[in-house]
Specification:
The protein is an alpha/beta fold and 174 residues long. The protein contains seven helices and six strands; from the N terminus they run ααβαβαββαβαβα. It comes from Polynucleobacter wuianus.
Amino acid sequence: MTGEAIKALSSAANPIEWYCPQLLASPKESMDMVTAHIDQSNSDCLAVIGSSLGGFYTNYLAEKYACKAVVLNPAVRAARELAPHVGMMTAYDSDEPFDFRPEYIDELRALQVEIITNPARYFLIAAKGDELLDWHEMVDFYPGAKQLVLEGSDHGIADYADHLPQVLDFISSK
């Protein structure tokens, strides 16, 4: 949905590159892949959007590149959240099995952002109805950032389409 909206904003006068790779099980390998793509890109502006674990990665990338970030129900302490799930598991959005190894917890710790350096670069969308993560922790992690706290909803933000225009406005604003 976000990709289609971004592509619709792109034009010959204002080309926008959309990059949304399938991330790997290894957090380090995932961030190596994404940073390699960003580093070779010819784009003059960068915004990162991520949900759940992707929100955790978004924090890392936003701090590394000092860019705008939209975080949707982010796992702000991913190592803590995922430590109980080491072993064989399935993806959140499919039945695809993968081995979540103990070393991935250490990789997540290495990517942990403790404090965001410029709250004006961040937009948090947090759902009070998130069944996996604590919205209070999300709100506390992004003090001073633009925040939209949703009554109800869920971890996947089922009503995301209603909020997409705000996401686009945020990443498009100077």
